[in-house]
Structures are given as C-alpha cells and as structure tokens.
Design goal:
about 140 residues; alpha+beta; Protein Transport Mog1p, Chain A; seven-stranded antiparallel beta sheet; 3 helices; about 15% helix; DUF8017 domain-containing protein; DUF8017
C-alpha cells in the first residue's frame, strides 16, 4: 500500500531498525468504487503486511462503521492483527490498521485515509488517539 502525505509516530523506537515507527498515518486515492468495497480491499493489506513465508497472523476485521465527513459519506473498517510471525527483533506482536474511505475531490474519486499502529509495544498509539484522528478528518 502506497500512501502519500504520510506522517510517523514514534520513529526509531527500536534501536535495531532506524526505519522503525510505532504508527503511520497517510492518505491515498482510488478510482471510482463503492466506499465499503474500497475500504474492505484496502484493510486486507494486513494479510500480506504481517505474514512471512506462508506464516499468517491472526486477523479480526470489524464491522463497517458508516458516518459522514463534512456531509459526505464515509466508511471505516479496522483490522486487529495478532500472532504476527516475527522476522526480526523490531516486529511487534500485534498491530491495528484502520481504513476510512470517503468521496474524493480533485485527484481521486475515493479518498482513503489509513492509520497503521503497532500493538504490544511500549509507547504505542492508543485506541482513543486513533479514534480522535479519524474524528478530526475534514475536507480541504
């Protein structure tokens, strides 16, 4: 998944990996499509993001949450990932991926906002902070 306008939380939290981060937030765009279908496709990225050599993590997907952003329809899906197969000492034991799809503006027909957060590690971004990020979404 390629996201733009990305920002990181807890950069370099693991000394063994200078690219480590506790969470990442960003946005991308997709061509026209049903918002739920787009969000469901994007949230399934956890299936390859956290697997290794055929070893798969345990993934629990939320029911969709429908809401509005500035009067425009939006849908949110969350994947909770556990039992992540470790490939190095910086891999978290669990993670969370939140995906919000809403109608796009100039460059894409569907805007997709993504929050990826490690779980089970010191200093992790808490659930209420993720909820606050999603609640703060506005059209610009």
């Amino acid at each position: 998944m390629v996201i733009g306008s990305a920002s990181a939380f807890g950069k370099e939290y693991c000394e063994a990996d200078d690219t480590s981060m506790l969470a990442a937030v960003g946005i991308t765009g997709r061509p026209a499509g049903d918002l739920l279908t787009v969000a469901a496709h994007e949230v399934r990225a956890v299936e390859w993001m956290y697997s290794d050599d055929g070893r798969l993590p345990t993934i629990n997907y939320s029911d969709p949450v429908h809401f509005e952003i500035a009067g425009n329809p939006a849908v949110r899906l969350t994947a909770l990932v556990s039992d992540i197969p470790p490939t190095d000492e910086c891999d978290p034991p669990a993670a969370r991926l939140d995906v919000v799809a809403t109608t796009g503006l100039a460059t894409a027909e569907v805007a997709v906002f993504v929050v990826r957060a490690d779980r089970g590690v010191a200093g992790q971004l808490d659930d209420s902070s993720i909820d606050d990020l999603v609640a703060s979404l506005r059209r610009s």
